[in-house]
């Protein structure tokens, strides 16, 4: 309730229906599913950060890419401290407040979240989003667009996991496997929502960029067939995850790295749990 109340009191929702929709989507619940081991003294700040990202993502659906790009560059400038929030912009004030809260808790690990967030915001307005892609090209594109680097850095922040550059480099293959898993889970579960948005919202930001569409175009399968194929891919990435982890454990690694790898697995399962149950994807009457 604390996180919901923060946004209900500070975010400029256009009307009561939109507020009810926000509460029904259960974005803080997503956060707790994704990060069940988060430290109590860090989870609130990190949850507000993630909910903010969801709300900005929704905002961008209604903007042309050029306008969305300018908007995100302004937010980036505010986070960097180069620009002050406009006094008449509740969103800009929330963005700065959320970042300041995280910095006050752990500046080192919150700083690690910044650049991945900036890259994610910029990817949302990249014209490459509109280009036709192969499955391999699409998965490569989603490495930025799904914000996996943001999610992983947030995990390290919440669990107070301090890893060396060498340790992070040693699990790059595990992180990439995780990225494919959460990307395709999100795409399959959000497909119907995105398809509706592409029909209802006349803006470039609402154009469907989804592996279901990509796989259907490339294979000749219908959308349901493409979704079933995606589920097979998802389960294979889970098996791949287990194999990579076992190899890392046999090679030997620090307790911090073990904790990090365990957290990645929890993220994968938590993301699927929430995606299967949230009103964000499963209650079209709320849209």
UniProtKB/TrEMBL annotation:
It comes from the Eukaryota. It is an enzyme of class 4 (lyase). Gene3D superfamilies: Farnesyl Diphosphate Synthase (1.10.600.10). GO terms for molecular function: metal ion binding; terpene synthase activity. Its cofactor is Mg(2+). GO terms for biological process: isoprenoid biosynthetic process. Keywords: Lyase, Magnesium, Metal-binding. InterPro entries: Isoprenoid_synthase_dom_sf, Terpene_cyclase-like_2. The keyword RNA-binding does not apply. Its EC number is 4.2.3.-. Belongs to the terpene synthase family. This is Terpene synthase. The lineage of its organism: Eukaryota, Fungi, Dikarya, Ascomycota, Pezizomycotina.
């Amino acid at each position: 309730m604390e996180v919901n109340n923060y946004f209900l009191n500070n975010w400029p929702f256009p009307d009561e229906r939109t507020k009810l929709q926000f509460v029904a989507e259960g974005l803080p619940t997503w956060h707790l599913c994704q990060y069940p081991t988060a430290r109590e003294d860090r989870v609130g700040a990190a949850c507000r950060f993630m909910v903010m990202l969801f709300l900005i993502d929704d905002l961008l659906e209604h903007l042309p890419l050029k306008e969305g790009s300018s908007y995100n560059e302004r937010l980036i400038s505010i986070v960097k401290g180069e620009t002050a929030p406009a006094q008449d912009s509740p969103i800009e004030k929330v963005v700065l407040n959320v970042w300041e809260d995280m910095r006050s808790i752990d500046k080192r690990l919150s700083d690690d979240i910044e650049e991945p967030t900036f890259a994610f915001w910029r990817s949302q307005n990249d014209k490459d989003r509109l280009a036709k892609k192969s499955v391999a090209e699409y998965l490569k594109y989603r490495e930025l667009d799904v914000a996996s680097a943001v999610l992983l850095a947030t995990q390290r922040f919440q669990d107070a996991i301090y890893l060396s550059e060498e340790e992070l480099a040693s699990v790059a293959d595990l992180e990439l496997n995780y990225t494919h898993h959460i990307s395709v889970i999100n795409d399959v579960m959000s497909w119907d929502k995105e398809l509706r948005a592409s029909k209802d919202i006349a803006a470039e930001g609402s154009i469907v960029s989804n592996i279901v569409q990509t796989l259907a175009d490339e294979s000749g399968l219908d959308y349901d067939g493409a979704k079933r194929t995606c589920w097979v891919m998802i389960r294979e990435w889970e098996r791949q995850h287990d194999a990579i982890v076992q190899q890392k454990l046999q090679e030997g690694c620090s307790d911090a790295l073990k904790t990090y790898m365990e957290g990645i697995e929890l993220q994968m399962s938590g993301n699927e749990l929430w995606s299967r149950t949230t009103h964000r994807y499963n209650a079209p009457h709320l849209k």
